[in-house]
Amino acid sequence: MRQTRKSKTNSLVMTAMFAAILCISAYLSITLPTGSHISLINLTVLFIGISLPPFQAAAAILIWMLLGIVGIPVFAGGMAGPGYLFGSLGGFSISFFFVSWLLSFFCKLITRHRRIFYYLLTISAVIFIDLFGTVWYMLSAETSLRAAMAVCFLPFIPLDIVKALVAAHIAPQLRKIAETV
Question: pTM surpassing 0.70?
């Protein structure tokens, strides 16, 4: 299907808008003594994956990552630079690229807007984000899996599942809105 000029413009605007929302969500965080952050970034990534087609979802995350790499403070807690992205907590941010594309791809396969599918997809997405980030932390901090799980996974997964449930609950409405734009 050939895109019209209007649909190309809409695609660019939606991608840029979600990249900007992702940048803002990084500032809505609480820094913990471990250096980790409780933030709305995960929830925003889920919304991006639910709302945008796969290429646009991945592009929005890539824009956000590139802004952070060049020094604009868009990562959790207002952090920036390649040191953060490739540091011990960077695995969480890197996983967003994969999750946004995969979530978008699987949401696209859902023809009927049944919440149960969205619940399963978003819960799987946050588990993937937290596990990917935990393994990244374990490898970069040279710690045991047990210690990494205690620092990066177990304290965050309950709240992340709540975020996934919130995203899944409004997913059908978000998909309908995104499909009409």
Answer: yes
